[in-house]
Amino acid sequence: MYVENKSAGSDLPGIQGPARIGRVVYSKSLQSICYRGRRLARAKGGYKYNHYDVETHEHFWISGPRRDGEDGLYGARPTPIDEDVREEYRTQIRKQPERKHEKFSC
């Protein structure tokens, strides 16, 4: 999944934030996602975000990775790929097995 923190440091707070491509785990009810030790609940009516951290209340944009690499809400930008999903992302999602060693999308 593409996970972007909309609350964290950026020149455009709330518009773009630090992002990663990584594996998430859904709750049984599908109302929250666990990613890197954080529980991100589904938000209702959020502006430019669709999940929030239940502890810190930071806002996140989470979406499935796109084959064209334009994962961000505002298009493509270099995004770090978690080590445990890099090969799967490059070979199955982006169809670029020759680039499976690269640590950033785009």
Taken in chain order, the helices and strands follow as EEEEEEEH
Give the overall form.
globular
Q: What is the helix tally?
A: 1
Output the strand order for the largest sheet. Answer: 2-1-7-6-5-4-3
Rg of Cα set: 14 Å
| Span between termini | 15 Å
Tell me the fraction of residues in β-strands, as a range. Answer: 15-25%
Low-confidence stretches: none
What kind of sheet is the major sheet? 7 strands, antiparallel
Rounded average pLDDT:
88
Indicate the structural class: mainly beta
What proportion of the residues is helical, as a percent range? under 10%
Q: Say how many strands there are.
A: 7
Number of domains: 1
Please explain how this structure is put together.
The protein contains one helix and seven strands; from the N terminus they run βββββββα. The chain has one domain. It has 106 residues and is mainly beta. Strand 6 (51-53) and strand 7 form a beta hairpin. The longest helix is centred in the C-terminal third of the chain and has 8 residues, at 86-93. The chain is globular and about 40 Å long. Strands 2-1-7-6-5-4-3 form a seven-stranded antiparallel beta sheet, with no helix packed on it.
Entry keywords:
single chain, 106 residues, mainly beta, 7-stranded antiparallel beta sheet, 8% helix, 25% strand
Short précis:
8% of the residues lie in helices and 25% in strands.
SSE topology:
Layout: E1 2-5, E2 19-21, E3 25-26, E4 32-35, E5 38-42, E6 51-53, E7 59-63, H1 86-93
Antiparallel strand pairs: 1-2, 1-7, 3-4, 4-5, 5-6, 6-7
